[in-house]
């Protein structure tokens, strides 16, 4: 289960990296139509949630510490926040449907939340890899003394 935890967490990280690529594809598509962000939407609303659930499931089955299981679940919540931010940004338009400064500010939070999610997933990948490859049995523990205050 620990290898499955590592594999799904890496796949989740790759999916998040692709999410930024898909956002750029949508942003640079000319002319921009309704389908410009379809890859970004499908990945964000289907692939990332499924991989997040699998990562959290494998973390629990791998008997990871509770804090790590919680960290593995966190991307699911961040995906929900992403959807809410996108809805708020889209709802914050003027009567003609044009962007407003408020809507653009809210939309900027979508990117910030995405960056936070990537950092969470990087932490999960690191912890999963450490859990999957524990210290060798014959390793000698080293005690480090703290410096005495001056």
Textual characterization of the structure:
It is a single chain. The chain has 150 residues and is mostly helical. 73% of the residues lie in helices and 0% in strands. The chain is built from four helices and no strands. It has helices spanning 2-28, 38-61, 66-91, 101-132. The chain is elongated. The model has no long low-confidence stretch (mean pLDDT 91).
Work out the oligomeric state of the chains in this entry: single chain
Number of helix segments?
4
The helix/strand order is HHHH
Radius of gyration: 20 Å
What is the average of the pLDDT values?
91
| Helix proportion | over 70%
Determine the N-to-C terminus distance.
Answer: 48 Å
Structural class call reads: mainly alpha
Major sheet attributes: none
SSE blueprint and pairings:
Elements: H1 2-28, H2 38-61, H3 66-91, H4 101-132
Helix pairs in contact: 1-2, 1-4, 2-3, 3-4
């Amino acid at each position: 289960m620990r290898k499955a935890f590592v594999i799904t967490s890496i796949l989740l990280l790759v999916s998040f990296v692709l999410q930024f690529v898909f956002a750029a594809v949508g942003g640079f598509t000319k002319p921009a139509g309704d389908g410009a962000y379809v890859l970004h939407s499908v990945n964000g609303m289907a692939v990332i949630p499924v991989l997040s659930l699998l990562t959290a499931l494998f973390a629990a089955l791998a008997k990871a510490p509770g804090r790590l299981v919680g960290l593995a679940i966190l991307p699911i919540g961040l995906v929900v926040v992403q959807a809410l931010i996108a809805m708020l940004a889209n709802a914050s338009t003027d009567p003609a449907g044009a962007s407003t400064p408020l809507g653009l500010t809210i939309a900027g939070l979508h990117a910030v939340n995405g960056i936070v999610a990537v950092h969470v997933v990087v932490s999960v990948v690191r912890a999963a890899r450490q859990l999957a490859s524990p210290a060798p049995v014959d390793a000698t523990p080293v005690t480090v003394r703290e410096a005495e205050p001056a």
